[in-house]
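are you around this afternoon, could really use another pair of eyes. what follows is a protein written twice so to speak, once as letters and once as structure tokens for the fold. i want to understand how the tokens follow from the sequence so walk me through it. anything you notice is useful, everything is just below.
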Amino acid sequence: MTRHSEAWQTRLRAHWSVLNARRTPKGVVTSGLGLTVGDDAEVLVGVDARGDHHLLVPVDVRSAPVEDYQAAYIRIQRCTLVVDGRSRIFTDVVCHRPDLSELFDDILAAMLVELGAGSGQRPDIVCKHVLDEWRELLRRRGGLLGDDALRGIFGELIVLEKILTASPGNGLSAWRGPDREPHDFRLNNGDLEVKTLGDNGSTVRIHGIGQLEPPTGGTLHLIVVRLSVTSDGLALPDLVERLQSKVADRKAFAVALARCGYSQMDADHYRDRRFTVAQITALPIDEAFPCIVPSSLSGVLPKEVSNLSYSLDLSLLLPLATLTGHALTPLFVNGSLS
């Protein structure tokens, strides 16, 4: 996220706060952003009677409308408003879902940065281009997440939160799971591979002979996150929203989630599945750990064999684990375990 985007986000939040306090039962209350486009017409933000947020970009009435109704929650439409006693035409970028307000601010900030850059393009076309770009970035691949994938992402995000809390400098770049790298996290003091279990489960699936191979000259720990399904637990969208305030680049975070198959625009589909973290345990991967890695093979895999995966029973290892609770903290910061 650029410095200019952050500045616009800060200004937007300040405007929403003031406008919500001034909200009326009818119409849209507006305020100017101090940014002009076209013939020195000021860009406005507004809040309507429902509480929906609007970015209002002045356009030439003679131009053909540029609109976007692909989604029910974030739209671009042309509207007429009376501002300071004068009827004016705007391109209206509006969000109809309060739970997407932070994402909407990210999108608006990107639009305002582009509008301020003065590319020479029509302002409404600029807004449409930015929305299209974000929509493509956030578009999930395939269908909605199944239960196993949902729990898997939840477990990785729990670990990401601990890394961001213990060592903000590592930040989002430590999370390598979305890029399909062998290990889910790469920190300066070693790699972490995350597996998620239910209340009574003890078996995890290992994908590939490299997944439990320590990095050259480094260490690897298998982080096991045990989740309980509870009615008062945390849903995946709640965890995502909690992390948004901790990541430095919310756009990069949203894109990483999309690569995992999760789109914030699908959040409502996941709100009924809630989890409580029952335990987090770390198992060091060393020569005695039961796993299949390249060094354990007498030779290379036959070329006809690919996508090797296997099940690993942790029922005997987890009760003996000493890295749990506060003892895990050194894993999430730069440095070596003592």
Remarks:
- The chain has a mean pLDDT of 89.
- Helices lie at 3-21, 101-117, 123-138, 147-166, 236-244, 250-259.
- The first helix runs from residue 3 to 21.
